[in-house]
Amino acid sequence: MNTLPDSQPGGPEPLPVSARPLVLFGLGDAGCAVIERLGGIAGDGVERIAMNTDMVALNRIQGIKSHALGRKITRGLSCGGDPVQGANAAESDVEAISALVDDVRMVWMVAGLGGGTGGGAAPVLARAAREKGALVLAFVILPFEFEGIHRREQAEESLSALRREADAVICLPNQGMARLFEEKPLFNEVYAAANELIAAGVMGVWKTLQRPGMVPLGFGDFERLLRGRNASSTLAMVETRGENRTREALERIQNHPFLQAGLGFADADSVLISVAGGTDIRFDEVEWLHGQFQRLCDHARVVPGTAQDESLTGRVHVTALLVRGGVRSTPASSEGRLAPTANGHPGSTVAAENGGSGLHFETMNPKGAQSPVTPTAFMPEAPSLTTEQMRRAVERQIKNPSKRKRAVQTLFNFDVVSLGRFVQTEPTMRDGENLDEPTWARRGITLN
Q1: Are 22 and 42 in contact (CB under 8 A)?
Q2: What is the pLDDT of residue 263?
Q3: Residue-wise burial string across 335-359, b where 16 or more C-beta atoms lie within 10 A, e elsewhere
Q4: Half-sphere exposure of 201 (CA within 13 A, CB side)
């Protein structure tokens, strides 16, 4: 059984209970669409704020406080799917963002990754909130497979940057939505179902923290589980009724589309389980469900909770928050971020005070040492060498040739085939090479 320390040395102290309990941000088109559906979460000091660079889309949102990002950068237009532009827009408003998260205990954000505003602005917002001492939880929507490899790669890079800044990131894959339909759904039905399920997940976590219970789960449990871990997480929530409601709840949550498409019970290090029901929920139902989850997660730390809610009479509601990995740390350092150059693209690695965008991506080699990834839109290519530097490098190679034994091309027992009617045809020559010969033969490439 894994255990978590009560606190992390050097980390931010939790804010007092009197602080603003929760601010929920929607970033970009996808994030704003989800928090619009969360009217039931309002009240009790909870605030909703929609953030976007697209002023037209922002003006369509009603009844929610809104904040336009980077007006001087995008001039009120969208980021065109460029997360670097989204990061630049957020960095240009970082002081205003810091004011929005001042004296907040928890900051939750919903963002779609793969595009511009959500993927670029989310790490900036997360960093600003953690520097203010807030617990930062990000609900991120991953793109459908049909959206292509470019958007998937951008989503992965944005996710990597966000995990370094947020306390925990809950991944909600859009691709799992199609599994909810037995027949071929309409396109807008899948998108509507995705937004509804994501909004229900956010609401489910909030209700879990708000419900009084026999085994309550509160802000303290949530903070102890997540704060400072920079972990990957996912969320599943089901509601069942009838005679076999507990068994059906267990089966449905194990086959939840968010779990099937990503992190599952067998992979989690820590699991928060909330079982809620009406006044008719029985002790044996609660005991059986928690026992099953303990068996599913026998290698993980399980934080159980049980609550009664009169509105759930006749039903059982189960919420599972799964957390994997992450190292407890102090808020992310502002050093080592990519700064935008004059043309808006990342330039050299500099400190944040020199204009860093917060997007810096690294990977781990098999031995665990950090090594740079292949240059992408987020990672600049290696600096070019001067003529003098190149000359010295070539001289060193000439003076210190490789001691590896030169490979010798072996002969293959291929039959000699005549050119037939093409014997009198002129060869295809280009730059002195006969293109009619195999490439490996022309260039002396060793074949294994």
Answers
A1: no
A2: 67
A3: eebbbbeeeebbeeeeebeebbbbb
A4: 31
Residue 119, helix vs strand vs coil: helix
In angstroms, the CA 272 to CA 103 distance is 26
H or E element that contains 20:
strand 20-27
Is residue 350 pLDDT above 60, yes or no? Answer: no
Query: What percentage of the chain has pLDDT greater than the value 70?
Result: 69
Amino acid in position 370: Q
CA dist list (Å): 283 to 104, 150, 422: 37, 50, 88
CB-based burial of residue 267 (10 Å sphere; 0-12 exposed, 13-18 middle, 19+ buried)? middle
How do residues 322-343 score in pLDDT, each as one tens digit? 887 755 444 443 333 433 433 3
- Is residue 126 a contact partner of residue 104, using CB atoms and an 8 Å limit? no
**H helices of 133-244, where?**
149-165, 187-210, 219-226
Q: SS3 breakdown of the chain: % helix, strand, coil, rounded to 5?
A: 40, 20, 40
| Measured torsion, CA atoms of residues 87, 338, 336, 93, in degrees rounded to the nearest 10 | -30
Structure tokens belonging to residue 400: 């210190």
The one-letter code for the residue type at 8 is Q
Q: How far apart are CA 440 and CA 411, in angstroms?
A: 12
Q: Which residues pair with 43 in a beta bridge?
A: 46
Band of pLDDT at residue 287, cut at 50, 70 and 90:
very high
CB 222 within 8 A of CB 209: yes
The span from the CA of 252 to the CA of 236, in Å, is 9
Phi, psi torsion values for 438, nearest 5 degrees: -60, 145
pLDDT digits (tens, 9 = 90+) for 365-419: 333 334 343 444 334 445 566 777 777 776 766 666 555 555 555 555 555 555 6
Asked if 147 contacts 114 with a C-beta cutoff of 8 angstroms, the reply is: yes
**Using one digit for the tens of pLDDT, what is the confidence trace for 70-107?**
888 888 888 888 999 999 999 999 999 999 999 888 89
The residues near 203 (Cβ < 8 Å, ≥ 6 apart) are 38, 40, 41
Residue 401: alpha-carbon gap to chain centroid: 46
Q: What's the pLDDT band for 184 if we cut at 50, 70, 90?
A: confident
Tell me how many helices (H) and strands (E) the chain has: 14, 16
Q: What is the mean pLDDT of the chain?
A: 75
With the CA atoms of 130, 135, 138 and 139 taken in that order, what torsion angle do they form, in degrees rounded to the nearest 10? -170
Q: What is the pLDDT of residue 95?
A: 93
Q: What span, in angstroms and rounded, lies between the C-alpha atoms of 168 and 86? A: 21
